[in-house]
Write a structure and sequence with these properties.
The complex is a heterodimer of chains A (about 260) and B (about 325).
Chain A: E1 4-15, E2 18-29, E3 33-38, H1 44-51, E4 59-64, E5 67-68, H2 74-80, E6 81-84, H3 96-101, H4 117-129, H5 145-158, E7 163-167, H6 175-192, E8 195-199, H7 203-209, E9 212-217, E10 220-225, H8 227-230, H9 233-240, E11 246-249, E12 252-255
Chain B: H1 4-26, H2 35-43, H3 48-82, H4 94-108, H5 116-135, H6 142-166, H7 172-178, H8 187-205, H9 208-214, H10 218-223, H11 228-250, H12 256-268, H13 272-296, H14 305-323
Helix pairs in contact in B: 1-13, 2-3, 3-8, 3-11, 3-12, 3-13, 4-5, 4-6, 4-7, 4-11, 5-6, 5-11, 8-11, 12-13, 13-14
Classes of the chains: A alpha/beta (about 260), B mainly alpha (about 325).
């Protein structure tokens, strides 16, 4: 198995008195695509926000390699891990290229933001791989949902990190754009070795595109492993509280969602 | 999107407009001099008319220019922090908080005259924190900020007027702040304004990139390694500084910090690296225009620039309010 990238120990988090994450342990592996799945309210979004330094744990530690992320400065963290959030907005007149160039912010000193040659190369690469180069002079706000999502991914890629977090990157998109995004994510992992950690709603897309599945219920991890190893009717019932059949498609498990 | 050519054109036209307006303002009143005489009188040989103009009109003109600049930039910065195109230092009570502090200092500790701007800054900051915390409910709704701001503004204005009336309007310095009157300003007032405004403007240059990043969702800005909370505090402090300084010398001005950035965005776009410099020029132009119109419209009587701004700005604000559903930065 690949090296550990995130090691989470005894993690707890509560919103006021309401405990969402309860003594959670988890190890994620470098170079893989890992997807968090679980029913609404199971704590996967909270775990995602804890791992991306948007929330602070009440107890326990999250280590990136060997360093507790609580001790990593935000700017340094942004050079190691990029995050594509679910909901994004941009000023109406901001061009795609300019928006993507914001991805270089973690490499700039405060107040000074002259793009270097390296910046320009990374921005160009990010636009090429996400197929947004042809839109570079258009306002990002005028693009379609699928194109916009690729622009936000490009901004994250311009950060030039080895880790990419995505929070429900396919939500609000129709099926064609969903597949485009998922294929792009796989390409980023396979060709560029970027470790992908994401939350997905669609269980079958999770199973098909992930190397590893982390199933959560009630603030805890109840299963972790390769999709074909862990997915059973029993697990689906525990996670989502519904009875669903499982079939094999292309050697991968497929949950019949009806 | 707005082409670079159009942006440059806006800069050039507004700058030329400001220059012309300056010459008109110099010549508005009972004394008249030609630009050649003015130049000669200022730099070459003594001319009594030019000397009078220099002592009486120049300070107020420069005060109008720098006060307008400071107020406009303050508006842009506040709008960036609050993500609200309706934020204006006058409307949401920062200016009146600053004036109240300035009034109290002028009335009770007139010897501390030179540090009045610092107290005005504290007053402005207090008003801003009050509005910010009272309108925070898991997020900032643009309309709630305005409503709370209007209430805070009315309260501070009321206290000030009460103080002014209760003392029989005996403190002329107080009355001039309350009425936002720049008629009797002298060079010393200008220097006070100039020093603090320059500090505020120079500081603002360093946060333009951060202003742009604040337009993104907070989480997204954080994911770029930006400490959003710290930036908000820093940018607000600069905005409050600029508004308070101009208030402590000129008095509270409403709508200038709202109208100028709005027009500026239409002309040069929302990139703060262009928007803020342009708002500086347009702010100076607009306030000098208001002052000059106020001097001529009912001559020989004068209407203060802040009253002109209120009369012209009110309808404009209502227009923006009606259109505000089409959100900012969506």
């Amino acid at each position: 198995m690949a090296d550990n990238i995130f090691t989470i120990k005894n993690l707890s988090f509560a919103y006021g008195k309401y405990e969402v994450i309860k003594g959670l342990d988890l190890t994620l592996h470098e170079g893989t695509i890992t997807t968090l799945i679980g029913a609404n309210g199971c704590g996967k979004s909270t775990l995602f926000n804890l791992m991306t330094k948007n929330l602070k744990p009440n107890d326990g530690t999250i280590a990136l390699h060997d360093e507790n992320i609580a001790n990593i400065r935000l700017k340094k963290f942004a050079r190691q891990a990029a995050i594509v959030h679910q909901y994004n907005t941009a000023p109406a007149d901001l061009s795609v290229e300019k928006l993507i160039s914001y991805g270089r912010t973690p490499y700039h000193r405060v107040g000074i933001s002259q793009d270097t040659k390296e910046d320009e190369e990374k921005i160009r690469w990010a636009m090429e791989i996400t197929n947004t180069l042809k839109h570079k002079d258009k306002p990002a706000a005028e693009l379609s949902g699928g194109q916009k999502q690729r622009v936000w991914i490009a901004m994250a890629l311009a950060q030039d990190t080895k880790i990419l977090f995505l929070d429900e990157p396919t939500t609000y998109l129709d099926i064609r754009y969903q597949l485009q995004i998922l294929k792009l994510i796989r390409q980023l992992n396979r060709e560029y070795g970027i470790t992908i950690i994401m939350v997905l709603h669609d269980i079958n897309q999770s199973l098909y595109y992930s190397d590893e599945i982390v199933a959560m219920q009630d603030g805890k991890i109840i299963a972790q492993g390769r999709p074909e190893e862990i997915i059973t009717s029993e697990l689906v019932r525990r996670v989502y509280d519904v009875e669903l059949n499982i079939q094999n498609v292309d050697g991968k498990p497929f949950v019949i969602p009806i | 999107m707005i082409s670079t050519r159009k942006k440059v054109l806006s800069f050039v036209i507004t700058a030329i407009g400001l220059l012309f307006l300056f010459l008109i303002a110099v010549n508005t009143g009972s004394l008249k001099v030609s630009p050649a005489e003015l130049f000669k009188g200022l730099f070459i040989e003594y001319n009594p008319d030019v000397a009078t103009i220099y002592d009486l009109r120049f300070p107020r003109i420069f005060i109008a220019i720098f006060g307008g600049t400071a107020t406009a930039v303050s508006g842009v910065l506040l709008q960036a922090v609050l993500k609200n195109p309706l934020a204006d230092p006058g409307i949401i009570g920062i200016s009146s908080g600053a004036s109240l502090a300035a009034v109290l200092i002028t009335a009770f500790f007139p010897t501390l005259y030179f540090i009045t701007p610092l107290f005005a800054f504290l007053g402005g900051m207090a008003a801003f924190l009050l509005v910010y915390s009272l309108s925070w409910r898991g997020g900032l709704s643009p309309l709630r900020i305005i409503l709370v701001g209007v209430a805070v503004n009315a309260m501070f204005m009321g206290i000030m007027s009460a103080f002014n009336s209760g003392t029989g309007s005996n403190y002329s310095g107080v009355a001039s702040i309350v009425n936002a009157n720049i008629t009797m300003k002298i060079w010393n007032d200008f220097f006070t304004l100039f020093i603090y405004v320059m500090i505020g403007l120079i500081l603002s240059i360093f946060v333009l990139g951060q202003c742009n990043l604040l337009a993104l969702e907070e989480k997204t800005a954080r994911s770029l390694g930006v400490n959003v909370t710290r930036n908000r505090i820093m940018i607000s402090a600069i905005a409050v500084l600029l508004a308070s300084i101009s208030t402590s010398v000129i008095g509270p001005i409403s709508f200038l910090g709202l109208i100028v950035p709005h027009i500026a965005r239409l002309l040069v776009g929302s990139n703060h690296k262009v928007l803020v410099p342009y708002s500086m020029i347009l702010g100076a132009f607009t306030f000098l225009l208001a002052d000059t119109v106020g001097r001529t419209i009912a001559s020989p009587y004068e209407i203060s620039a802040s009253i002109i701004m209120s009369v012209a700005g009110g309808p404009f604000f209502i227009l923006l309010l009606r259109r505000s559903k089409q959100n900012y930065g969506g």
